[in-house]
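From the pipeline queue, job 12 of 40. The input is one protein chain; the requested action is below.

Action: predict structure.
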Amino acid sequence: MSKAEWLYGIHTVSAVLNKHPDRVLEIKAQEGRDDRRLEVVLGQARQLGLAIQTVNKKSMDHQFQDANHQGLAARCRLSAALDEHGLLDLLDRVEGPPFLLILDSVTDPHNLGAVLRSADAAGVHAVITTKDKSVGLTPVVRRVAVGAAEVMPFAQVTNLARLMKQLQERRIWIVGTELDETAKSLYQADLKGPLAIVMGAEGPGLRRLTREHCDQLVYIPMQGDVQSLNVSVAAGVCLFEALRQRQSV
């Protein structure tokens, strides 16, 4: 667990209270704010016995400058990234077919934050990236993720190719997204069983070694002239196609 920091926004604070209430140390709420959603979250915090400090709008705006705090903030012990051992331990506890997302050299914190939100919504068990040449759980990532960074297991590994081999030994099918002559349409791929989807950075795509360790390559069919999508958008498309298939089993 990393050091305690302030998180803000009704959805973000609610997500932490629902999933990890033990991480919340104290709450600040803006006085006189008429918002039913805010009252629901504060009621939940009171039931948990958490300390709530009421402050005026000027104080909230000063402490959380340039932030859409929505009248609510919580000081929390933030989640820390898992390593390889932590990830494999998590997989041992997963019920049903594992569903993973691997990011290869994604460096933009806004993209990672958006991906974490999509992964949480699609029911992914963990998001995996590398320790080097990839962005981690920065303050920007946490803000863009709107709570998902605190509830979605996130792993950073030292050797992605080695980890992919370990996943394959667990019979997890690894599907990479790549515009390649050997790739098949995303909508023709079987995404129902134990699965890891691999996304590369926009532009360079998957690194050669990562691509070679995939069991299958797929592409997203597109109708327009532009043949690439932002990685967070592409991840959403792939994850929800996998979710659609998995719910139809």
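Job complete. Residues 90 and 176 are 22 Å apart (CA to CA).
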